[in-house]
UniProtKB/TrEMBL annotation:
This is Phytanoyl-CoA dioxygenase. It comes from Photobacterium phosphoreum. InterPro entries: Phytyl_CoA_dOase-like. Pfam families: PhyH. It comes from the Bacteria.
């Protein structure tokens, strides 16, 4: 690894993100790209109107709707690989759990602009957002499959609430809109093979352009109440689990699901 676990942990705790350049080799990215592009083409065909008018991402890539067992197995093997788990363990050392996968791409609609947000704003009111960013932990592990403009983030906002400028832009109030620039924003261009790890609840936005196609793996702390967000179809079957070298992420999620239903 480029940095040791303690350095990664410190970077994440202080800033809410870190980047490891050239973390994956060309063979790993090529294998991943082939499976993801297969999913993407089938998803686009099945969601043609949505894709043309407003889509900028899709989800449930590990599910069975578009990919056969062999391709899903490639994804599960990648998600549970030593390179991924080393990073996950550095940030969530106790019982990390798999939530979902997402795929981010450029919108077809030229009127769509990139926008500042915290992921939690789509599920919680303001009071609960303030609470969530202090108490829970959801990670995005972003793997760009082609070189792209990357992300713009506000470092440190994973542990503090918005200042006035950030709030006005993110909430689109007081004459601001969500794609306005924010002072303190840091742009992080990404190349195929890089890994960006960032807090889902920090203020951030994806930057559109180039051949943007990035696979995000979402991981959560088992202590947080997020198991309801997990789609059963996106988890490996028992026969798949038996072949995964380090299946902890999936086993933890399955355990949480079994506890929730009883």
């Amino acid at each position: 690894m480029v940095e040791n676990s303690q350095q990664l942990s410190n970077s994440y705790n202080e800033q809410g993100y870190f980047v490891i350049r050239n973390y994956f080799d060309e063979a790993q990215i090529s294998s991943l790209r082939k499976v993801v592009l297969k999913f993407h083409e089938l998803w686009k065909a099945d969601n043609k109107e949505f894709y043309q008018e407003e889509a900028f991402n899709s989800s449930l890539i590990t599910g069975s709707e578009y990919l056969p067992v062999d391709d899903r197995t490639i994804l599960f093997d990648f998600i549970s690989s030593k390179k991924i788990m080393n990073v996950v363990d550095a940030v969530i050392p106790k019982n990390p759990a798999f939530m979902n996968t997402q795929l981010f791409f450029n919108p077809v609609n030229p009127r769509q602009k990139d926008f500042w947000h915290r992921d939690c704003q789509y599920d919680y009111d303001i009071e609960d957002q303030i609470k969530v960013i202090l108490e829970t932990q959801v990670l995005h592990l972003r793997i760009p499959l082609f070189d792209e403009p990357g992300m713009e983030i506000i470092p440190g906002t994973h542990k503090r609430w918005d200042n006035e400028e950030e709030y006005n832009v993110r909430q689109e109030v007081n004459g601001k809109v969500s794609n306005d620039s924010i002072s303190g924003g840091k742009q992080i261009a990404l190349a195929a093979g890089d890994l960006l790890v960032f807090s889902a609840d920090m203020i951030h936005r994806g930057l559109y352009g180039l051949d943007r196609l990035a696979l995000d793996i979402l991981i959560f702390d088992s202590a947080a109440d997020y198991v309801d967000y997990v789609d059963d179809d996106c988890l490996p079957t028992q026969s798949m689990l038996n072949k995964i070298a380090d299946p902890r992420l999936f086993i933890n999620t399955l355990h949480l699901k079994s506890m929730a239903c009883c």
